[in-house]
């Protein structure tokens, strides 16, 4: 694995791929991120991150079959690797640990 440190947008993309299961291709990831975050997310930004996460070994991809709806074009489907799942778990544990460590006085 090239690197396990990820930024916020990389984390969101990994989470979207996990949410989409076997239907995680570029445009579906964009749609899921827009729905979940209410942000204006571009396809080019998502594609860059998908490639970077694959280079890091956190995602893997396969080219699916073409469909009539897509004019016979095939789409690249992404899925989490074991390392990708581990990074998400570690990130969640870190965030939870830090949230729990905030003194009650901060929230009052």
Structural overview:
The chain has 108 residues and is mainly α. Helix 1 packs across helix 2 (26-37). The model has no long low-confidence stretch (mean pLDDT 90). It has a two-stranded antiparallel ribbon with strand order 1-2. The longest helix has 20 residues, at 82-101. It is built from five helices and two strands. It has a single domain, classed as Arc Repressor Mutant, subunit A (Orthogonal Bundle).
Approximate shape: elongated
| Strand residue percentage | 5-15%
| CATH architecture descriptor | Orthogonal Bundle
Listing every helix as H and every strand as E from the N terminus to the C terminus, the arrangement reads HHHEEHH
**What is the CATH superfamily label?**
Winged helix-like DNA-binding domain superfamily/Winged helix DNA-binding domain
């Amino acid at each position: 694995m090239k690197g396990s440190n990820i930024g916020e947008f990389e984390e969101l993309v990994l989470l979207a791929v996990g949410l989409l299961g076997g239907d995680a291709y570029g445009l579906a990831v964009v749609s899921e991120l827009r729905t979940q975050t209410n942000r204006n997310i571009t396809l080019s930004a998502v594609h860059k991150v998908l490639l970077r996460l694959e280079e890091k070994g956190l995602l893997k991809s396969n080219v699916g079959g073409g469909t009539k709806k897509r004019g016979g074009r095939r789409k690249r489907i992404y899925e989490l690797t074991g390392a990708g799942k581990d990074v998400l778990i570690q990130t969640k544990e870190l965030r939870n640990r830090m949230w729990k460590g905030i003194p009650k006085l901060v929230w009052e």
